[in-house]
Write a structure and sequence with these properties.
heterodimer; A: 113 residues; mainly beta; Immunoglobulin-like; 6-stranded mixed β-sheet; 4-stranded antiparallel β-sheet; B: 117 residues; 7-stranded mixed β-sheet; 11 strands; globular
């Protein structure tokens, strides 16, 4: 069975600085998607960034980028120039061929002014 | 374009009472999900619909939970009777699954927070 592990329950970053959130996963599948979702307090969860496993190039979305290491089964999220609005729970998620999403336990990101 | 709409946002009930949650997905999305999210945890799948068919309900506690998506559009999740341990946020999500063209993105509602006293 697939698993997703986020080992950092909470992280803090100074405004304008860079922070990296870690995620590891386990799977025997070769084709899958990996995602980072953001859940602000009392607000809906939204997609931050997506990575297709067959793509070697790391995905980037403005200030957000990933470091995808397929062999190591690692998928970290880097947030550059952190802003107060980045404060939220961040969930790493895996989606394989069964259409079932597996979410990690989340990392709470605090942004310090 | 309207997002995924859920109601009610908050519900407080006594244990053993019934409760129902409603979800209206994004128009045209064929796949609908109900997730359970406990405090400080990630979402856990309860049931997944493809159109009106429940294709994955293995994690749904069928002795007290039921769900329906009669016309393949909106959906209702019911708990009867509710137990103290059911206190959580119930999230609805939808996606447009088009096989190879599937982007995989889930669109979530704001959730329904249930408190069982």
């Amino acid at each position: 069975a697939q698993t997703v592990t986020q080992s950092q329950p909470e992280m803090s970053v100074q405004e304008a600085e860079t922070v990296t959130l870690s995620c590891t996963y386990d799977t025997s599948e070769s084709d899958y998607y990996l995602f980072w979702y953001k859940q602000p307090p009392s607000r809906q969860m939204i997609l931050v960034i997506r990575q297709e496993a067959y793509k070697q190039q790391n995905a980037t979305e403005n200030r957000f980028s990933v470091n995808f290491q397929k062999a190591a089964k690692s998928f970290s999220l880097k947030i550059s120039d952190s802003q107060l609005g980045d404060a939220a729970m961040y969930f790493c998620a895996y989606k394989g061929g069964t259409y079932k999403y597996i979410f990690g336990t989340g990392t709470r990101l605090k942004v310090l002014a | 374009e309207a997002g995924v709409v859920q109601s009610p946002r908050y519900k407080i009930i006594e244990k053993k009472q019934p409760v129902a949650f409603w979800c209206n997905p994004i128009s045209g999305h064929n796949t609908l999900y109900w997730y359970l999210q406990n405090l400080g945890q990630g979402p856990e799948l309860l049931i997944r619909y493809e159109n009106e068919e429940a294709v994955d309900d293995s994690q749904l506690p069928k002795d007290r939970f039921s769900a329906e998506r009669l016309k393949g559009v909106d959906s209702t999740l019911k708990i009867q009777p509710a137990e103290l341990g059911d206190s959580a946020v119930y999230l609805c999500a939808s996606s447009l699954d088009l096989g190879l063209a599937n982007t995989g993105e889930l669109f979530f509602g704001e959730g329904s927070r249930l408190t069982v006293l």
